[in-house]
Amino acid sequence: MDSKKQPKVIQQNREGSPGKAKRDEMGTEKTDHAASGGSAPSGSLRNRKVPAPPTKASRAEHSEKGTKKRTNGDISPTQGDIKHKKRKAKEAAAALTPAPPTEEDIWFDDVDPADIEAAIGPEAAEIARKQLGQSERSVTLVKEQAFGGLTRALAMDCEMVGVGPNGEESIAARVSIVNQYGKCVYDKYVKPTQPVTDYRTAVSGIRPEHLRQGEEFEVVQKEVADMLKGRILVGHALHNDLKVLFLDHPKKKIRDTQKYKPFKSHVQSGRPSLKLLAEEILGIRVQQAEHCSIQDAQAAMRLYIMVKKDWESVAPDRRPAATAPDAGSDDA
Fold this sequence. Notes:
Largest sheet: 6 strands, mixed
Radius of gyration: 48 Å
Helix content: 40-55%
Structural class: alpha/beta
Shape: elongated
Order of helices and strands: HHHHHHHEEEEHHHEHEHHHHH
Number of helices: 16
């Protein structure tokens, strides 16, 4: 090799080295093109389209995609995602929250609405008060829309007048009986069997004209006895009422509100009056002026119904609830 030409060769080699990558790229392109079954046209390297460099718009798009990806990873949630999650949480809470009770759901007849409110809630208590004929947070003595016939438990009260020289002896002048809903099922004045010397009108509410239109004592006695037979008798100081009717009733079936120990403890009295019990326990006033035997019987029944479950659990005449329901159809 001529030594004079050597520098030129070296220069060519030096110049060729930077183009090695281009040659490799061209060779690769030709190989790929050949593999696809085509021939490489002249000048293909110069005419080949090279991807344009990323612009600002593409960078913004890429940034947006990254943001979405981070959102899916709960790193930086968007406002729409937050609203969606809140809506899902509300739907889940609504599914877990029970629907408010309806009138068909509440059918308690012997449970105080205050107890229902504590156990179930104010909505249920409101329905119970409505069924009992009560206004909000008040107690009434009669459930107006209830069954009006005989029930397993009946409450009785008698008004009396005085006979004898000083009117100290008592005879029956009026007999009233209500069912467990406070509905009056019997109310009659009684013709006196002896001359009345004290009508006791200020207390009894009895006047001469009432007794003149009264029923014969024997009729009233039999009707009451037939009505009470086999049933629970509720009342206040019932021994006085049974005495003037010359009737007896099985002790195990008597529920006397004057003798119920929890009532006596509540008002701290050994012989509490019905007036006191009604005011302290029921929160209502009775016997403000002339007495009414219907109202007194209703008050006694209401007191009994308030504690019926506890009272019956210790009563000597306990029966399983299934065999002695309080449904009107069973007691009619």
